[in-house]
Design a protein that fits this description.
The chain has 172 residues and is of the alpha+beta class. The protein has one domain. Helices cover 43% and strands 27% of the residues. It is built from three helices and six strands.
Length: 172
Amino acid sequence: MKKGQLAVNETILIVFIFILIILGGLLVFYKFSMASIEADHIDNEITRLHSMQATFPETPEIKCSIGGMSQSSIDLYKATVFSRLTKLDKDYYFWRLGFKEITMEVIYPFKNAVECNIANMNNCGTWVLYSHIPEDYVAAPKVQTPVSIYFPETDTYGIGLVNITQYFVVEL
């Protein structure tokens, strides 16, 4: 080999190694950026979960209103219908609520673990208002909020808990 060819080969090798170093740096930067974006996404979803904790009991679909006047309680009839509606129109509620499970349970004046539906509304104590659980999820933080529950059949009020569980989907 001549001296000129050797210099060209060395230059090509140095450029190739330099490009590999740059690509390695870009790959490391990409990984750190994706990890940061994922962490920000989870923080945002947890903030939305806590916001939903305060706003879900005020949803018009389940909020009690008597004579056109809204009250700060959940109507059991509306909650039962809402539970059925979320099963019938899954796409609309998935778009609004995402991967969550929302349940409500009565804790006073009675506690009953029987799941409620239209057939047994008066002999139950737990409602699955919304449930869309993914097959694979990373974490499932849960928040609870106490609520006032209106029993329309007896025109009385009770105390309950609304449980909201957020599921974070595994990215492939």
